[in-house]
Amino acid sequence: MDPREGLSVANLVFYIPCLFIAGWVSFRHGFNRQSGWIFILLLALIRIIGSICQIVSESSPGESIDEAWIILSSVGLSPLMLAMLGLLARVHSSMSPTSPLAPTMFRLLGIVPIVAVILAIVGGSDEASSKPSTASSGVTLVKAAVIIFMVIFIIFAAITLATFLRLRSVSAGDERILYALALSIPFILVRLIYSIIVDFSHNPQFNLITGNVVIQGCMSSLMEFIVVILYLTAGIVAPRIAKSHAQPSVDLQETGYSGQQSGQTTSQYTEQQPNQPS
Question: If DSSP codes are grouped into helix, strand and coil, which group holds residue 261?
Answer without folding.
Answer: strand
